[in-house]
Specification:
single chain; Ubiquitin-like (UB roll); 5-stranded mixed sheet; about 25% strand; 3 helices; alpha+beta
Length: about 100
Amino acid sequence: MLYWQRIFLPMHKVTFKGDDLTVEAETGANLRDVAQIEGASIPFGCEQGICGTCLITPIEGADNLSDIDDVEKDTLEAMGSDDGQRLACQCAVEGDVIVEGFL
């Protein structure tokens, strides 16, 4: 990414409900990275979408997260997760979102 492109990337509000924490993240930022950098209490394991440790529920703005890929879909199905739940390590921020993690 070129420097000038980085300057003009839109910023989005990401709220970690359980932590009562709202931060800004640029378009395309990995939700796992945002959580780790900002100190949100979402646990992480493999960080590759196969362990399910970083399970979250988007409360608002689920459409503002990247599409589910095959790895994430397979993991969520194997875990028996609820509809709409996601893996933070597999989500890119594309707009404002409120998420809740599980500790």
